[in-house]
Amino acid sequence: GIQVEQSPPDLILQEGANSTLRCNFSDSVNNLQWFHQNPWGQLINLFYIPSGTKQNGRLSATTVATERYSLLYISSSQTTDSGVYFCAVNFGNEKLTFGTGTRLTIIP
Amino acid sequence: DTGVSQNPRHKITKRGQNVTFRCDPISEHNRLYWYRQTLGQGPEFLTYFQNEAQLEKSRLLSDRFSAERPKGSFSTLEIQRTEQGDSAMYLCASSLGDLAGSTDTQYFGPGTRLTVL
């Protein structure tokens, strides 16, 4: 079946470190979004990136659609970056299928 | 702030009671989605509307669940005869989609956390 897998499942880093989160998906996608879910449960949009590379401040993302993966880069981590990061994809229909998530903990 | 809003933010109910949640999307968005998230999992799709038409329903949406979007603006999600397994965060999202069916960025509300005792 359709699958979206993220790695690593958990990541603990010192403040100031860089990190790379990966999202693998099992089929061609129309849309891929990265979200940060804060401790209160709010899903915050980071990127809409079905292909290519985008950057927003300390965050950047790259999607290689032909190889069915996307990467989220976080540089110079801050404690406010802690939370769960989800990628979510559209497989040719309207619904988003979410990945398994990466829980990021930034230690001061 | 003109983001997606949801009410109530928290709901505690007893098993067997009915509950109703409301979602107000971003004003110009014609598509509205409901998702459910249980502890430790990613959100799962329940249903979506284009304007007032409900176009897709997940098999997760049992006959105890009903969603409406009567005027193509706000939406309600009702759960009848709640069960303990219904305890979850219910998330609403909206997007601006064109009639050709292209997908667009979905923006999420803060969610309604349901606890069934």
Structural overview:
The complex is a heterodimer of chains A (108) and B (117). Chain A has 108 residues and is an all-beta fold. Chain A contains no helices and eleven strands. In chain A, strands 2, 4, 5, 9, 10 and 11 form a six-stranded mixed beta sheet that branches. In chain A, strands 1-3-8-7-6 form a five-stranded antiparallel beta sheet, with no helix packed on it. In chain A, a hairpin with a 5-residue loop joins strand 4 and strand 5. Chain B contains no helices and eleven strands. Chain B has strands at 5-7, 10-13, 19-24, 31-37, 44-50, 53-57, 65-68, 75-79, 88-95, 107-108, 112-116. The chains are: A mainly beta (108), B mainly beta (117).
How would you sum up this structure in a few lines?
The complex is a heterodimer of chains A (108) and B (117). By secondary structure, chain A is mainly β. Helices cover 0% and strands 57% of the residues of chain A.
Write out key terms for the chains shown:
heterodimer; A: 108 residues; mainly beta; B: mainly beta; seven-stranded mixed β-sheet; four-stranded antiparallel β-sheet; 0% helix
